[in-house]
Amino acid sequence: MAETQPSRSRDLDKLLLRPGHLVGPNFEPGSELREDIKEYVKVLVVGAGGLGC
After folding, report:
1. pTM check: above 0.85
2. Neighbours of 4 (CB within 10 A)
3. Considering the domain boundaries, does residue 2 fall inside one?
């Protein structure tokens, strides 16, 4: 069955699953890092109320 909703971590996927210019020289993109973050890290996202966030 195909997933019809976007991943809850799609923004993190953009950062963690592909190389980029803002990472260290030893960074290797991969799903293992994403799974470690899910297990060990809590992320709090705060928006500025009233500004359309």
Report:
1. no
2. 5
3. no
